[in-house]
Amino acid sequence: MTAGNHSAVSDFVLLGFCQSWNAQVLLFVVFLLLYLITVSGNVVIVILVITEPRLHSPMYFFLANLSFVDMWLSTNTTPKMITDFLRKHKTISFAGCMSQIFFSHFIGALEMVILVIMAYDRYVAICKPLRYSVIMSFQRCIVLVGTAWIIGFVHAISQTALIVQLPFCGPREVGSFFCDRPLVMRLVCMDYSTLNILLNLDCGVVAVTCFILLLISYSHILVTVSRSSKAGASKALSTCSAHITVVVLFFGPCIFIYVWPLNITWMDKFLAVFYSAFTPVLNPAIYTLRNKDMKTALKTLSSYCVDFKRNT
């Protein structure tokens, strides 16, 4: 069955954050700046990893992939949200709504798996340093990232293929700034409780499995680090603390939105905007400010840009 046979709704109304025009203009400026910083920050990380020979290692290869994914995580919802701040009627087509749901789950699951891969990379580097170059070969890195993309795609399809066939006959108001799956499900003209449980379980399998694997990896790392020299332990903890910070900031909102929903409107909006708009800009800041190699590469790139500007 196709969505057209079921749904009498051709578009949805996004309620956004507030109705005050002055507040929406202020939010337009804030989120526009935030989005520009997000995109530019993550693009810089990708460029640094590609152009700086010292960053040609598995850890930075995975970091570049994470930055690329973060850029699209923000792009999935933020541009639409920004333009809606200047519109009186905030609508999104049925196809656009389903696309937002698909890419939210695709990119979200993809990022979770990449974070697990990064934790595994640190586990091998710290716990099995003599075999690191063999275990984390370039071919294996490609396979791991490819697997992450496949898992993200399969998870997104499993979510969207079921939702797109549901009957939407009104109301059509989504209580957020984008089409979030739990909120869109409330507009279905049928009892969706069983399906909602199945979809939450699907999200739970991905999120909880990734979270457990992360805990296992970092537990092994912390145990190994505690037995190492003070200098080695300090460097390892510095790297891992940045990873753990990103994990907490990313997994926290995801769990309370899709796995264990709070069903509190203002909290759902806060977690959604934090997950989709703030987390992608925090990741490049955390990794560049706490990583010596990244800071050195950034200074080199800055010096090159200044010299190029002077010579032109």
User: What best-fitting shape do the alpha-carbon axes yield?
Assistant: globular
For the largest beta-sheet, the strand count, sense and barrel status come to:
3 strands, mixed
Q: What Rg do the Cα atoms give? A: 21 Å
Specify the helix fraction band.
Answer: over 70%
- Give the beta-strand count: 3
Question: How do the helices and strands line up, and which of them pair or pack?
Answer:
Layout: H1 3-6, E1 11-14, H2 21-51, H3 58-84, E2 91-93, H4 94-127, H5 132-135, H6 138-163, E3 173-174, H7 181-185, H8 193-226, H9 230-259, H10 265-289, H11 292-311
Parallel strand pairs: 1-3
Antiparallel strand pairs: 1-2
Descriptive overview:
This protein is mainly alpha-helical and 312 residues long. It has one domain (3-311): Rhodopsin 7-helix transmembrane proteins (Rhopdopsin 7-helix transmembrane proteins, Up-down Bundle), CATH 1.20.1070. It contains 11 helices and 3 strands. Strands 2-1-3 form a 3-stranded mixed sheet.
Search tags:
single chain; 312 residues; mainly alpha; Rhopdopsin 7-helix transmembrane proteins; 3 strands
